[in-house]
Amino acid sequence: MMIKRLFPIIIAFTLFSCNQKKETTEDIKEKGNQLAIEINNHSYGNVDKISTNHLHLELNVDFDNKTLKGVARHNMDNKGVEKAVFDIKKLNIEKVTLGNPENEKETTFSIGKYDSLLGSPLIVDISKEDENINIYYSTAKDADALDWLDAELTGSKKHPYLYTQGQAILTRSWIPVQDTPGNRFTYSADLKVPSELLALMSATNPTEKNETGEYHFEMKQPIPSYLLALTVGELEYRRLSDNSGVYAEPHLIEVAKEEFKDIPKMIDAAEALYGKYLWDVYDVIVLPYSFPFGGMENPRLTFLTPTLIAGDGSLVSTIAHELAHSWSGNLVTNASWEDFWLNEGFTVYFENRIMEEVYGKEVANMLAIIEFQELENTIQELNTQDRERDTHLKLNLDDRDPDDGMTDVAYVKGAFFLKTLEEKVGREDFDKFINGYFNAHKFETLTTEDFVKYLKTNLLTPLNVDFNTDEWIYGAGIPENTIRIESKRFEIVQELAKGITEGKALPKNLKRGDKITQEWLAFIRAFNGGLSKEVMTAIDQQLNFKNSGNSEIMSEWYVLGIKNDYTEIRPEIKAFLKKVGRRKYLEPLYITLAGTKETLEWAKDVYKEARPYYHAVSFNTIDKILGVNQ
Ligand code: BES
Ligand code: ZN
Q: N or C, which end of the chain is more exposed by having fewer CB within 10 Å?
C-alpha cells in the first residue's frame, strides 16, 4: 500500500469541544493549540502511524429522530503512537473508550475546528500499545451522506426510507472513520431497524426481513471507507442467478427484475475478460428517485437510480459500469481523489468492453461516441472557466472539493487513453496486461505514478512501444493520437436531423421504438442547440420525447427545449425536476435555466418545491448554480 503525499497541509487549530477525564479543559486547550494535524488526501486521519484493520459497527436506525446512534469499534494497527486521528463531520461524540467490549476504559479526546468541506479531526488519546478504539456517537439530522425519506416520498408511501452515499468524502458524516481511500479495512455490523423494514449494507445481506429488525453484516474483503453503505426500507428481493439478484420497493420489484435480467450475462462477460469476480455476490438495489447518481459501486450491492428503468433495458450500460468497478475501483483503488481517473477511466473502458461482449460492437461504439461528445463539451467548458488544469487526468485538488475533479475528463479521457493504448498494442496483449494489473494489485490502493510505472515495466518496455503516456496523463485536453470511433447508425440520424433543419418533415412512419436511446441522443444533439419550437412540437407529436419515460432522452430534450423557448413543455420539465434527483440530469437543466432572467426566475420557483426531494449531493450543487440558500 502506497500513499503518495505531494503537498501535505499542516494546520494548527484550537479546540472547541473536549471530554475531560484526567485533564482540565485548560490543559486540553493548551495542548490543542500546540497540536498540528496534517490533511492528506482530504482526510485528517494519521493512517501512516495508526490505521483501521477492522471496523465493527453497532447502530440503531432511528427514523423518528432521523439519527443513527451507537458505537464504531476500530481495531487498529498501531505503529506505536499516542494519538489516533479520525475524520468526523457533524457527529455528536458521546465518549471514547479503549479495549475490548468486555474491558473498556474511557479515554480523553478532542475535536478540532469544523471545516465545511472536510469536517473536523477527532483526536483520541491512546497508549502506544492500544489497538482497540470504540467511539460512541450519533449522527446529525443534516448528515451529508444520509438521505432520510419520509413515507410520502417512497413508492408505497407507507414506510420511510434511508440510504447513504459515501463517495467521495461523506462517510465521515455517518461513521467516525479515517476517511481516505488510501486505507482498506474489513467490517462487520449489527443494526437495529424498525421491524417492518429491511436493512442492507455493502456486505453479506439478508434477502428477507425478520421479526426482530436486527441484522448482522460481514464484509470480509478489505475496502476503502467510501464503499461503506447502508440502506433501510420496505424492500423485496428477486434472484437473477446463483450469485446475483435485485432489491427494490415492492411496486418496482417485478419491472426491475425484467429490466436488469442481463446482469448474469454481464458478470460472465466481465469474468471472461479480467478474471474471477472476487466479491462472491453481485446484487443491485433500485433506490428512490432522490438518489443523486446513476449508480454507485458499493461492493456486493450496487446502488442504482430508478431512472435506469426505461422499460426496454436500454440504459443498462450503467450496470455494466458499476459491475466493472468490482475490479477497477473496488479491487484496485485510487489512493487519492487526484487519481480518480484510475477508478473511473478504467471503469468506463471496461464498461464498454462488457457492452461490446453482451450487445455487440455497434452498440458499444455508439455509447463511446456519445461519451466522447460529452468530453469535448466538458473540456471546452473547463477551458472557458480557466480550468485547463482540470483537463489533466492526474488532478491537483489541494484545498478543493474532490467533486471538482469528478468530470468527464476522469471518465472519458481516461477511457479513451486506454482505448488508444489498446489500439496501439493490440487487444490480445492489452487484455493480458489489464488482467495482470488487476491481479497484481488486487485489494491495494494505487497512485497514478504507481500505474505509470507498472505500464512501462509490463507493457510499453517489453513490447518496445513508444507512447505519449505523459501527455495523456499530465497534459491538457485530448491528445492528437486519440482513437476515432465512427458509427453508421449515427450518420443516419445526423442526416435526418440535417434534413429537418433544412425544412423537411419527419418521415411519417418513423417511430421512437425504431431506434435505440443513443441514436435518439445523437439525433437531438445534431441540432447543435438550435431548433424552432414549432418543429419541436411536431417531433413531440410524433415521437413523444417529452413524455418518453426515458430519462436520458427527456433530459436532453428538455435542455434543447429551454434553449429554444419551447415553453409548452414546462409542465413536463417541472414534473421531472420534482421527481428525479440525479445530479447528471439536474445540473444541465438548471444551468440552462439560469441562462436568462426569466427562465432563472421560473427555475427558482420550481426549485423551492423540488429541493426537498434531492439528496445533499445534488442540492448543494444546484444551490450554487441558482445562487440560493448559501
Ligand atoms: N462512483 C461513481 C459515482 C460517484 C463518483 C459518486 C464520484 C461520488 C463521487 C459511479 O460509479 C459512477 O460513475 N456513476 C455514474 C455512472 C455512469 C458513468 C455510467 C453516474 O452516476 O452517472
Ligand atoms: Zn463509476
A: C
- Ligand 1 center from residue 407 Cα (angstroms): 10
Q: What is the Cα–Cα distance from 628 to 630, expressed in whole angstroms?
A: 6
- Cβ atoms of 270 and 323 closer than 8 Å: yes
Compute the distance between CA of residue 57 and CA of residue 189 in angstroms, rounded to an integer: 4
304 pLDDT above the threshold of 80: yes
The residue annotated as part of the active site, out of 44, 274, 349, 411, is: 411
φ, ψ of residue 58 in degrees (nearest 5): -125, 110
d(CA 615, CA 617): 5
- Please report the pLDDT score of residue 36 as a whole number: 76
How many CB atoms lie under 10 A from the CB of residue 181?
28
Q: pLDDT digit string (tens) for 104-121?
A: 999 999 999 999 999 999
Q: What is d(CA 606, CA 614) in angstroms, rounded to the nearest whole number?
A: 13
Residue 9 reports pLDDT greater than 80: no
- Pick from 344, 404, 551, 620 the residue to mutate for probing ligand 1's pocket: most ligand atoms within 8 Å of its CB: 344
Helix (H) or strand (E) run with residue 333 in it: strand 332-334
Nearest of 574, 504, 515 to residue 538 by alpha carbon = 504
pLDDT reading at 32 higher than 60: no
Amino acid letter, residue 285? I
247 C-beta neighbours (distance < 10 Å), count: 25
* Beta strands in 421-527, from DSSP E residues, in sequence order: 444-446
**Alpha carbon distances (Å) from 578 to 290, 295, 596, 625:** 9, 20, 21, 17
**pLDDT-based confidence at residue 34 (cuts at 50, 70, 90):** very low
Which cell goes with 211? 421479526
Give the C-alpha separation, 525 to 494, whole Å: 9
| H helix and E strand count, the chain | 20, 24
**Test site for ligand 1: of 165, 293, 323, most ligand atoms within 8 A of the Cβ:** 293
Residue 629's SS3 state is coil
Q: Is 437 a catalytic residue?
A: no
Residue-level pLDDT at 35: 63
CA 329, CA 295: separation in Å to the nearest integer?
14
What is the whole-number distance in angstroms between the Cα of residue 472 and the centre of ligand 1? Answer: 22
At residue 93, the 3 state secondary structure works out as strand
Tell how strand 146-149 and strand 161-164 pair up.
Answer: antiparallel
Total-model pTM: 0.95
Report pLDDT for 630: 79
Which pLDDT band holds residue 423 (cuts at 50, 70, 90)?
A: very high
For residue 322 and ligand 1, the question of a CB distance below 6 A is answered with yes
Alpha carbon of 581 to ligand 1 centroid (Å)? 14
Compute how many other C-beta atoms are within 10 angstroms of the C-beta atom of residue 240: 19
Q: Per residue in 566-584, pLDDT tens?
A: 999 999 999 999 999 999 9
How large is the angle between the packed helices 488-501 and 517-525, nearest 10 degrees? Answer: 40
pLDDT at 19 over 90: no
Known catalytic residue at 423: no
Cα 355 off chain centre by: 20
Once rounded to an integer, what is the mean pLDDT over residues 17-28?
Answer: 44
Three cell numbers written together for 179: 476517511
